[in-house]
# Entry
Amino acid sequence: MASESSIDAAAPKAEVVTRFAPSPTGYLHIGGARTALFNWLYARHHGGRTLLRIEDTDRKRSTQDAIDAIIDGLAWLGLDYDAPPVFQSDRAERHAEVAWQLLEAGHAYKCFATSEELEAMREEQRANKKPLRYDGRWRDRDPSEAPEGVPFTIRIKAPKGGETTIQDRVQGAVTVRNEEIDDYIILRADGTPTYMLAVVVDDHDMGVTHVIRGDDHLNNAFRQLPIIRAMNAIEGNWPDPVYAHIPLIHGSDGAKLSKRHGALGVEAYRDEFGILPEALFNYLLRLGWGHGDREEITREEATQLFDLDGVGKSPSRFDLKKLENLNGHYLREADDARLAALVATRIGEDADEALLTRAMPVLKLRAKNLNELVEGAAFLFAKRPLGMTEKAAALLEGEARTILRSLCNALAAQNDWTSEALEATTKALAEEQGLGLGKLAQPMRAALTGTTTSPGIFDVLVLLGRDEALARLNAQAA
Ligand code: GLU
# Structure
């Protein structure tokens, strides 16, 4: 799990430095991807730097698979970072160093309370319906009173009395009474740092100026500030970061987003739903951020337009339909050869990428995702005798096969195999036989594709090519 991770302390401090700090205990889910996107955009918009920190201190729950999935997912979305990822677990010694610095300067203290003692304290608080908080029993006690050989933790001295206000860029001014923040542990008895300490030290050392993250971390900000301010008192140059706590994403029913709502990893949107990265990028951008009522915003425009002022305060709702509609838009914008390559991988060895590229302009007209493109392209690679859907088979009953026979003869005589010429021939035949065009087109579609939906029938004829098209028609003609 550990890998090279260094922090270049000598790097000049850019004006804006943001970071995405995922815990690799699961894949990169929609909420995390949006947090990453906002951090990336904020830095890019302001000409700053954006960094990635893998918060892998929970060694039991962090996995290499999750780290890989997060890094892949970010790269797929086109979110690049200005330095190699920092792995929090590599930095435990540095975190501990800060804890000891705080202790020596009197901003933190050793706590010798045993776990039994602390449990009894909480039991009493519970019985008195008091909030469960460490009561500061070692805050002003001399460590010489400590029992011999008892391990200690290091606790931060949180401010007593008064209140703390954060000017959050999304939530506005948020105030908490300091009595609500207890003297929590920054260094455990085994010498390992707690999460709260690690985040603060890493943000400082990475030069982070703006902390943009989910609003489930707003409470943490009030706990992290005492460390920041104590270190600033000791060293200077530990300014409060600018905070922006963005509302969480809810499902379309308004409840917090869960697996049930499609809170999947981004790779599921890529692999299972066949979404393009630019569509997910645009969708995530619009999920909680707005610029007038514009829906379609490219990456370049987003970089120009994004700022925290446009981030709303209320939770946004995830809507797969909207994502798919946007995806349809981006499919139509996308380069045909690129789509052909994506579709070819999905189809496998039967696929012909050059043919797919030629077919793409008509295939992508209605598709909302890559799966629909694959379905739409299936007729191109179908082998004779063609399988028929039930509906297609029904279209080939009765006089349809006789109609196909005359159609075969007419088309075989047409040397100009273009959609205009083929259309003219078919229309002439319809007129001659006193039939509506649909009477010819429907069995033709069934015979050529084995289905009842396809691109325009004359495009189908052209894409299949003269020999294959005539062979398919002949196979169904009486
Ligand atoms: N690692 C935390 C998470 O994944 C984020 C911490 C932070 O942004 O400060 O929720």
